[in-house]
Amino acid sequence: MTATARARTLVASAERMVVLTGAGMSAESGVPTFRGPAGLWKSFRPEELATPRAFARDPRLVWEWYAWRRSLVADCQPNPAHLALARFALEAPGRTTTVTQNVDGLHHRAARSVADDLGMSSPEPAFALEVHGAIHRDRCSGCARLVDTPAEVDATDATSLPRCDHCGHLMRPDVVWFGEPLDPDVIGAAFAAARAADLCLVVGTSALVHPAASVPDVTLRSGGIVVEVNLEPTPLSPRATSSVMGRAGELLPEILA
Length: 257
Ligand code: APR
What we know:
This protein is α/β, with parallel strands linked by helices and 257 residues long. The chain is 37% helix and 17% strand. Strands 3-2-1-7-8-9 form a 6-stranded parallel sheet, with helices on both faces. It has a 3-stranded antiparallel sheet with strand order 5-4-6. Helix 7 (80-91) packs across helix 8 (106-117). The longest helix has 16 residues, at 59-74. It binds adenosine-5-diphosphoribose (APR). The site of adenosine-5-diphosphoribose has 23 residues, from helix 2 and strand 8.
């Protein structure tokens, strides 16, 4: 039996599944990964762009980078991996919880388009828990007020950066930066889903950044198993019952069929 066929059999016999996705899930949509050959952290320094201190030091530089990433993501579409997962989740509501480290919103977009195709009123069963936030949303750095559809950011100079209508503080992208805590409700829901799952499907993550990378271990500690899909082995591979090497966009439609 091929690794893909084995993964498919394991997934088919799982009662409750938690899916953890990383940048590799969106790579075939054109969203750069972080640590891959052309990954963002190869050409940009996270300490200059993705920390609260970097934002305090030079908010214009940070906004310039996020405005670039935001426009890049806006031009990307969900790929067959996102669509297969959304269909799997919508066809058996309550059976699958998706937890994503990605801030690109592509799981939500896939959920909406598949729900439309299936004539379903709500895409919500296929929405992902976005543990690292969402790049298309703004959050006030003072009062934490959220703006779902912010205006385009003009990062040419610090005076033109977006400010909160409510308290006047600088707005920032609603993403979790290094050294910042995750939203306890969102990561709490992710761990609860991992505890309740008998299978954790891990797709396109280097499994290095915690606490998200602990989700598979929570399932393992609760007696469940791990199935991994990645281009290459990761630190998680030795603990996986099945580790399928290849592209998520090609493998997930087969594994979730
Ligand atoms: N299909 C499957 N896996 C892929 C594909 C693909 N098409 N392309 C790349 N991968 C794999 C890589 O082999 C790698 O293991 O996806 C993984 C991407 O790893 P990272 O770039 O480290 O991204 P991720 O694990 O999501 O990073 C976690 O780190 O920088 C922070 O907050 C950021 O959420 C991010 C977190």
